[in-house]
Amino acid sequence: MDGHSHVPVALDRVVELLRVVPDGLVVDATLGGAGHAAALLDAHPGVRLLGLDRDEDAVEVATSRLARFGDRATVRHARFDEMRAIVRSLGEEGVIGVLFDLGVSSPQLDRSERGFSYRHEAPLDMRMDRTQERTAADVVNGLSADALAHVIDRYGDERFARRVASAIVAHRPIETTTQLADVVRDAIPAATRRRGGHPAKRTFQAIRIEVNEELSVLADGIDQAIDLLLPGGRAVVLSYHYGEDRLVKERFRRAATGGCVCPPGLDCVCGATPTVQFVRGAKHASAAEVEANPRASSVRLRAVEALPRDPVGTADAAEGSAPSRSAGRAAS
To answer: In CATH, what number does 2-106+214-330 get?
Structure first.
């Protein structure tokens, strides 16, 4: 069950960002193999950790790896949009850190029977949580051509989405990953197939996101994280997909501006109250990080810090006095 051995992305930067938070509870919302979690617990003796993961295999592996920390580490099989309820059930009013390492994990891709990879023969599954009923086979064989095209376009940014969707419908039933990969490949024009990696990559990504409702779950999870942060606490997000990063950026910016609707260049007069400030904007991995871990090539790191809850407006310290202006620039 140690298939979750892998190099955590941006490990040193994540630990650096969370090392400075006050003592208290950190939520690792995507626990995986517990690489980030263990490093943080080692680096910050005042931290307790709640680890969440929707993959039962990851929960089993992480529980074993974090056992040496005793009652400093708690692990739950749960989606991260259940974060608030679980934190409250532990008797905590808030947290001093939240980490999201989004997308599919290397172990999930590497285990062919999970059905995430177009490179290996397997049943069409793609469920991160195998206790849920809906699988990739249900999406591929159940959606209309229009609905499939919408999924492939929205989540995969595939410019031939309609051609791919029509080909899938024409070849139903499709039962395996390699069958689907072949159908997608043949639907893509030959000239396009010769560049840009495997022609099925975008479609597989889109179907995986649809199966696991990744973006809708993420929106609620980010909002819950921001709501739970105590002053001085930080939320750190590693994203790998443009849709994820765009959503994270929008949610962080809204919290950093308080939802200000005043025209750019003018002082805020709408009564918006920022709740966080940006620690950094989008940060890509260094060449050394990508060489050590190819998965880091597409990562973007964003982080925010919770502001003091001061009713007289010390929240204006968020990277400038006019929250909507400075926050917007920091998020770019």
So the answer is: 3.40.50.150
